[in-house]
Design goal:
It catalyses: AMP + H2O = D-ribose 5-phosphate + adenine. Its EC number is 3.2.2.4. It is an enzyme of class 3 (hydrolase). The protein is α/β, with parallel strands linked by helices. It folds into 2 domains: 180 residues, AMP nucleoside phosphorylase, N-terminal domain (amp nucleosidase, domain 1, 2-Layer Sandwich); 282 residues, Rossmann fold, CATH 3.40.50.1580. It is 32% helix and 20% strand. The chain has 12 helices and 17 strands. The strands form 3 sheets. The chain has a 5-stranded mixed β-sheet. A 5-stranded mixed beta barrel has the order 13-16-15-14-17, surrounded by 4 helices. Helix 1 packs across helix 2, helix 7 packs parallel to helix 10 and helix 8 packs across helix 11. The longest helix has 27 residues. The chain is globular.
């Protein structure tokens, strides 16, 4: 009888060919550390791209091919940090903290800032090298390449999963951002998102908005009406013609770029718009304004903010229309939300409804000051055109058909002054992802008081009010752009055991 422990019915493990390794190195200069991240990421993704190309060309590939994301790691043994006013830039407790990194070229300035703060606050070096998290083949291509389509066209006789790592949803959840992450190895995260989670969103942004991630700016406006987008496009193109505006380009879906000073008469637009088209009024340092038409409903609002959050914007705002719930309100009045009744239901699993979504002072003040400046009304008189209060967000557009007495009772108990479908989702996801948020709505109808939104009335209202509303939103963004990032990113958005990266 054979003493061999080999099971003849068990297939032999496939040989794994690894990309050349990059052991952890010590860095005391943030710029050099990020440059090293870029080198590692480019080398490792090139390893996968090259072997995939060999496969498409019919070359025989033996075994599996694997490369790893680079990582940032910091080890500290002290609770001391230098500046307690900061909401980010420090680890919450002594120990080992690390995060996988993707597209360090795209996040270069952001990473330099975060790593500089870490080293300054803890007086320790940064470690850079390979992680143990494989890069999925699909994410080694970041120009929209359709990997599956290429494989199908080449008539491959074996599944891609036999040769390369493919996207794995188990490492793409939001447990870190949700505050439910439990590190099995004791290594605590530095960032709210893993590298595969970021890669997933970078690809989805291109899909939903038809613009590449590098065009997104740090100040983001959301709307649910094309009227606002049309006005944003008009205003953006005017600003590009002003040499002192600070804006250098305007990008529309299809990655169509108009440079400052360019003749705009022969610029073609994308014929078929994506689900949530994005438009970008760009500045050199990324401090321009992005505007996204999210369409109608809380599901879209959650989808797009889930993905834009990985870009770590400085603030996002909702500009849209709402139903006024008070008889004292008139069409065209503004509503500055300072609280939300979350009947949108799309975030219940990620953020329980008992979690309050607080108003952020910096955002609220910027919005109120912007309303005053653009309307020319200030002080006590501003109450004639703007009201601050609670906004209800529902997931049913035909809420008017519900039991009216029951609705009125609920709205009265919550002290609600307006109702829409998206604002609470955008604010709640801002809270969840530590992105400063705000809402300024414009009353377009008063269903409880007999003023329904009808076609003729709505069209006239949009023509009169959209331009002013958008001017207010842009002015508020400019005010917040003049603040320091440390001031805008409020400590009230951070939890007990918080990640170090903004």
């Amino acid at each position: 009888m054979s003493n061999s422990t080999t099971n003849p019915f068990q297939p032999a493990p496939r040989r794994v060919r690894l990309a050349p390794s990059h052991p952890l190195e010590v860095f005391t200069d943030a710029t050099k550390a990020v440059d090293r991240l870029i080198e590692i990421f480019e080398a490792n993704t090139a390893f996968l791209r090259d072997h995939f190309q060999n496969l498409l060309e019919g070359k025989a590939l033996e075994g599996r091919f694997r490369a790893f994301y680079p990582q940032v790691r910091i080890v500290t043994d002290s609770h001391i940090r230098l500046d307690s006013r900061l909401s980010y830039g420090f680890v919450s407790r002594p120990g080992t903290h690390a995060s996988t990194i993707t597209r360090p070229d795209l996040f270069r300035n952001y990473l330099i800032t975060q790593l500089s703060l870490l080293m300054k606050n803890h007086d320790v070096p940064i470690l850079i090298g390979d992680s143990d998290m494989p890069i999925p083949l699909h994410f080694a291509f970041y120009d929209g390449t359709h990997v599956e389509g290429g494989a199908a066209a080449a008539n491959l006789d074996q599944p891609l999963a036999d040769t390369f790592d493919l996207p794995d949803l188990t490492v793409m959840d939001d447990s870190i951002a949700n505050g439910t992450y439990d590190p099995a190895d004791g290594v605590m995260p530095l960032a709210s998102f893993t590298a595969p989670r970021v890669d997933y969103s970078l690809h989805r942004l291109q899909h939903y908005t038809a613009t590449r991630a590098e065009h997104f700016q740090n100040y983001v406006l959301f709307t649910n009406y094309q009227f606002y987008i049309d006005e944003f496009c008009r205003m953006s193109k005017e600003l590009l013609l002003q040499p002192d505006s600070g804006y250098e380009a305007f990008v529309s879906p299809g990655n169509i770029v108009i440079e400052a000073g360019q003749d705009q008469s022969d610029v073609e637009e994308l014929g078929k718009l994506p689900q949530m088209p994005a438009y970008h009024l760009k500045r050199k340092d990324g401090s321009g304004i992005t505007m996204v038409n999210i369409g109608v409903g809380p599901s879209n609002a959650k989808t797009i903010t889930d993905h834009i959050a990985v870009l770590r914007p400085h603030v996002w705002l909702m500009l849209g229309h709402c139903a006024g719930l008070r008889n004292s309100q008139t069409l065209g009045d503004y509503v500055l939300a300072h609280g939300y009744v979350r009947d949108d239901n799309v975030l219940n699993q990620d953020l329980p409804v008992w979690v309050p979504i607080p108003p952020l002072a910096e955002v609220q003040v910027a919005l109120e000051d912007a309303v005053s400046e653009i309307t020319g009304i200030d002080g006590y008189e501003l109450k004639r055109v703007m009201r601050t209060g609670t906004v209800v967000s529902l997931d049913n557009r035909n809420w008017e058909l519900w039991d009216q007495p029951e609705l009125v009772k609920r709205f009265s108990q919550s002290r609600a002054i307006a109702l829409d479908m998206e604002s609470a989702t955008i604010a709640a996801n801002g809270f969840r992802f530590r992105v400063p948020y705000g809402t300024l709505l414009c009353i377009s109808d008063k269903p409880l008081h007999g003023e329904l939104k009808l076609p003729g009335m709505a069209t006239d209202f949009y023509k009169r009010q959209v331009a002013q509303h958008l001017q207010i939103g842009i002015r508020a963004m400019e005010k917040m752009r003049d603040m320091t990032a440390e001031r805008l990113h409020s400590r009230k958005l951070r939890s007990f055991a918080e990640t170090a990266f903004q």
